[in-house]
Amino acid sequence: MIDFRATFxxxxxxxxxxxxxxxxxxxxKAKISEFMKQNFGDRVAFTTFSQSETEPAEAGSEExxxxxxxxxxxxxxxxxxxxxxxxxxxxxxxxxxxxLSIAVCDHYNHAxxxxxxxxxxxxxxxETEYAKQNxxxxxxxxxxxxxxxxxxxxxxxxxxVKADAxxxxxxxxxxxxVEDLVRxxxxxxxxxxxxxxxxxxxxDEIDKIASAGNMIGRDVSGRGVQTTLLKLMEETEVPVRSxxxxxxxxxxxxxxxxxxxxxxxxxxxxxxxxxVSGAFERLKQQVSRRMLQGQIGFSAEPTQVMDNxxxxxxTTQDFVEYGFEPEFIGRLPVRxxxxxxxxxxxxxxxxxxEGSLLKQYxxxxxxxGIGISFDDESLKLMAQAAAKEKTGARGLxxxxxxxxxxxxxxxxxxxxxxxxxxxxxxxxxxxxxDRLMAEGHKHEGEALKANALQFxxxxxxxxxxxxVFDESALQRLVERxxxxxxxxxxxxxxxxxxxxxxxxxxxxxxxxxxxxxxSAAVDAPDKFLSELVVQxxxxxxxxxxx
Length: 546
Description:
With 546 residues, the protein is an alpha/beta fold. It contains 26 helices and 13 strands.
């Protein structure tokens, strides 16, 4: 060790003290945790390591194996099983459900076969070729594209990740890192990498990353994303730890410091099913124009909506002309269209879908103590209004929210217990609401009066003194309870808290056991009671209560 005092002298040491010693791992973790909290708040957490994780391995000892996979992936479904499940949640789209069911079964049956073969004959498994059944879904918004894939993933019990293509870039310095989709599968699988390898990645708005034909220079949000995605969709190894993830890299640094190496875990995308979707507005015009030019039985008017009849003529070249790289669109061999929903479809969704908005609103009103029911004709009217929104099933939410917004606000706590939705309510919601509010106010008043009488009965049982509210007192109690938003038991307990003592005193002085309370007792209860007490001492002043 160098003797700094001998080299530079005591005075020099006092002016230039040596640098502080390098902190221990525990101190370094604490400093980094504090730094991250100050700069990023609670959005970033720094995970420390246990003693067993951070101790270096002894010479000659074997490193402990990583966490074993939780369970083997199982798949035992037929195409009709998957379609039957989708029929419970998604109305119409029969062709899309059939195509997706077959693609999913083909994909996972091969994955199951290959997974078994890897254990029995790894070399043969490596040589086995298979064209992945990645899917491209075409269709307008709100027709059930996301819903289809989400419920498939739930049925076969694999992790599911959804993202919009517009937020990604090829490298991550603009938008998000495409490879983060694969890492998110691991998170959805609770860290089970084996299960994540069989997950489903769904990318919406894929048509938004189509490259413009006249673009010059680098296109990081279009062609670059396509290039990165096509590698993932075929087969590649993705590091579970992102190079752009500060926390992950810090953990790797600690592992390297303690073990002499950092764990480099990867996830292979060979068995991950990729589904992309988009509205492809220009595609239907592009194909219908070509069909018109070819005179293949199409009308003179260009087709406004992509349907299964037109979609059968869509070719790979159409997607290339739309702005996709041939290699990218080639990784999506399964192509299907989800057709636009009409008013009758939306009515069927409300009536029969297990995820119906109708059931959601039944629960919402039930939470306010109101049972809601619907006439079929009222549902048809709402379906017609939603169809005009041109946003598919999402139009239902727009219509319902606008229609029932004031009903939730004004009827909650109004005393109304049942709401019947009729065509009159749909056509004239404000007039019906005004009438219901008046009825609800009346019902609430009757309920509050009944509660006031119950208070009087309980008062008599507990104190053997009878109090009687006349009509004016009942009316004022109801008005005050409604205005001050108090329950009747709370209001009476507050107003008449001293009446047991005061009336007992009067009973002792005069023997009186029954007292009639009017509106004056409700407006000024203390004054009313004081006057009664005074009169019990000075009866000559004239009794006001008999």
